[in-house]
Amino acid sequence: MKFFIYSKLLKDADKQYVQDLLDVMDEQKIQYAVYGTYADQLISHGLVSEEVEVINTYEELIRNKPDLVMTLGGDGTILSAIDIVRDSGVPIMGVNLGRLGFLSSIEKIKIKEVVEAVATGEYYIEPRTMLKLNCNMPLFDSLPYALNDFTLHKRDTSSMVTIHTYVNDKFLNSYWADGIVVSTATGSTGYSLSCGGPIIFPTSQNLVVTPVAPHNLNVRPIVLSKDSKISFEIEGRSENFLCTLDSRYETITSEHLITIEKADFSINLAHPKGVTFMKTIRGKLMWGLDKRNH
User: Fold this and answer.
1) What is the pTM of this model?
2) Which among 26, 40, 67, 75 is annotated as catalytic?
3) Which of 73, 87, 154, 255 is 20 to 30 Å apart from 106, CA to CA?
4) Do 214 and 197 fall within a single domain?
């Protein structure tokens, strides 16, 4: 078995957990490669040798054929890793070294037992829907995809924007708002949730359209089927607007005509057996806990 270890920053507080990961991989005879800039940090701290195998690109990932990508960080680390994983089908398992973490749901203190479980096949794969952006002008180079969400947002002004929205070429609404979010079921626990959107179970594959601070209080988030094509035209007092796919962003104008739809490939998330979405949201959102009883 072979892992690809992906992270961006080695913090002093995380060194022991990284050492635990390296030790248990050696015990389980798991080969591994490391993301380039992270490998440099591990080498400088004496955690790995200079001969460690490195992966930097999608093409190198395909050539190396790892069985699993293990990310060390938060949900943003997983989103960043997708730039390399893309449509390779290699599953991603996230160890949470950050704060909340719905995607990177594995606690750092459980690194050893999780790696041992993976080595014996005690894990399962869960496909997650991806979004694809189409536009009449070039945007986001060769990777117009997102796992969590797509957003349109005002930029350089306090004024609202107007976003004319169509579903399957039929007019839905003109949103007067600070912006709009289209999220996958995976992204429903991200920015969309903070804007009042619903939590969607990942297996449902629905898409959610959530306005950001809408001017009309009767405008609410809408859940659409996975086969919907959602198109946008944006206008406002500013000449420029912000467009994002997960953590990446571009500046656009009212000349950009954008359509969002389900991508033709999925991202595979790997989970140890016993870790479920329901268990994760209960723990992360502290449902059912009453501090009055503690």
Assistant:
1) 0.90
2) 75
3) 87
4) yes
